Amino acid sequence: MAKGKKRAGAKASKLETKELQEPVAERIAAGKALRDRVPREAHGEWQPAANRPDPISLLEEQEKTRAPDLIPVRHGRMKSSPFAFLRGSAIVMAEDLSGTPTTALTVQACGDAHLMNFGIFATPERNIVFDLNDFDETLPGPWEWDLKRLAASFVVAGRHRNFSEAQIRLATIGLLRSYALRMREFAAMRHIDVWYSHIDVDTILAAAPPEVRQRLSAGVQKARLRDHLHAQSKMTEVVNGKRRILDSPPLIQHIGEDALASDIIQWAYEDYLKTLQPDRRALLSRYKMVDVATKVVGVGSVGTYCFIALFTGAHDQDPLFLQVKEANASVLERHHRKSQYRNHGQRVVEGQRMTQAASDAFLGWIKGRGADQRHFYWRQLRDVKGSADMEAIQPAGLVLYADLCGAGLARAHARSGDAAAITGYIGTGMTFPNAIAEFANAYADQTDRDHAALVAAIDSGRLQALEGV
After folding, report:
1. Helix (H/G/I), strand (E/B), else coil: 134
2. How far apart are CA 66 and CA 62, in angstroms?
3. pLDDT digits (tens, 9 = 90+) for 275-324
4. Taking a C-beta distance cutoff of 8 angstroms, is the pair 175, 151 a contact?
5. Which tens digits make up the pLDDT trace of 56-77?
6. Mean per-residue pLDDT for 199-215?
7. Which of 172, 226, 225 is CA-nearest to residue 399?
8. Could you tell me how far CA 176 lies from the centroid of its own chain?
9. DSSP state of 287
10. What are the φ and ψ backbone dihedral angles of 135, each rounded to 5 degrees?
């Protein structure tokens, strides 16, 4: 961290509470003035602090409240590559980002804005859009943190695919220029137009270069098929005339005697319904919950409590799957500010609604009862969802995807932050994009070192790992 630069969590800039009714030109000028305090070149700096916490210890600390039998699955998934490690170690990067320069301009941050946390999904109006799609770590925070994590993820992913430095650089700079360009457009728009803006699939397909359009179109068509009926065909069976979820240990299995899971059936659904709008409650009242099972999801979330609930409606071809996922304190809270919400499930839901162009119709939250008062949020398990295939993506596809992610993150930040002030700070040249790209490369090197430390911890027996699941 450069001498004299503020850490996040320090006294906020006056811009953080500046009224957005101020003229755009004044807000742009105010953002530009922040360069005197935080030069844009300073964002390119990355050196681990002398007292940097051991990344493995941070992971172990995070795992203390998780299901012990699933923690080896998490380690096994993170061991597979530096890219997998980055995805699963938001707590580590949040620690590192807390020591980097920030303008103190605040947005509703994703908190875990790596490239696999973007994708396509169906809105309640059944349109298909591209947007952020993971909000477990969301919290008001510095806009730079999201952008730095996203840029670093593209470098790490590009290295994972053995792309050349030039190809990775093209994608990373494209991401950053897309973010800056879209933020400049949002700065000039009416607030209500920013709020309703979205990135729809038809626009993406029309703009895609011919060499990636066919693959992209195929991915969209595949996502259209990933609905509740598809989930039923893949994840259930009929036993004695009753539809039930298929066991696939340790990833999917019935709850048995697990007291917390039993509570999901006994009371959680009724509590969840109270957090929904009346029309959503009316719709869900037409469905009946018929089965519940635990399900392991993602990389960083492995070991937290997560359930899937199967509902049936008018007939067997009218299924509905809801996911019930544990929500803990955001990794950003350690370094920025506490959530205004006492329930972290509500924090996730409200942050998602603030950030996404259109959120899941069935978002809601609950808190456990009794001695173990864990927090959870509810959402649909599958509803026309898809994301980039990082094992198959080609350089041209990575460039297009970077452009989309940059635009998507800018749109998300503009809904809650001051697009004009951010635009004024970034400017129109290459100073800021070059700095963030430099940081991303340096942090990708750090990720390689941290991944090697994880592998060493597993090889030494300090950590247990279950690979291939």
Report:
1. coil
2. 8
3. 999 999 999 999 999 888 999 988 989 999 899 999 999 999 999 999 99
4. yes
5. 999 999 999 999 999 999 999 9
6. 85
7. 172
8. 18
9. -
10. -135, 25
Q: Are 408 and 181 in contact (CB under 8 A)?
A: no
pLDDT tens digit string along 407-444? 999 999 999 999 999 999 999 999 999 999 999 999 99
Q: Specify the residue for token string 């066919």.
A: 214
**Residue 97 structure tokens:** 């980002």
The widest CA-to-CA distance across the chain, in whole angstroms, is 72
Which of 326, 351, 319, 349 has its CA nearest to residue 268? 326
Q: In whole angstroms, how large is the CA radius of gyration of the chain?
A: 22
Question: Which strand (E) or helix (H) includes residue 438?
Answer: helix 431-460
C-alpha distances (whole Å) from 206 to each of 200, 201, 203 are 10, 9, 5
C-alpha 368/C-alpha 266 separation (Å) is: 11
In this structure, the strands spanning 106-109 and 128-132 are unpaired
Long-range contacts from 227-235, C-beta under 8 angstroms, 24+ separation: 227/382, 227/383, 227/384, 228/319, 228/320, 228/321, 228/380, 228/381, 228/382, 228/383, 229/317, 229/319, 230/382, 231/319, 231/321, 231/381, 231/382, 232/310, 232/319, 232/321, 235/308, 235/321
CA distances from 390 to 10, 84, 159, 162, 361 (A): 37, 11, 11, 11, 29
Instruction: State how far the Cα of 23 lies from the Cα of 27, in Å rounded to an integer.
Output: 7
Give the count of alpha carbons within 13 A of 114, CB side only. Answer: 27
Sheet holding 118-122, edge to edge: 118-122, 128-132, 199-200
Tokens of 216: 């992209």
Strands 199-200 and 236-239, sheet pairing? unpaired
Q: Which pTM value belongs to this model?
A: 0.92
Residue 427 structure tokens: 């400017």
Burial label for 298, CB within 10 Å (0-12, 13-18, 19+), is middle
- Angle between helical axes of 24-33 and 165-188 (0-180°, round to 10): 140
Using the Cα atoms of residue 247, residue 310, residue 131 and residue 111 in order, give the sign of their dihedral: negative
How far apart CA 88 and CA 96 sit, in angstroms, is 15
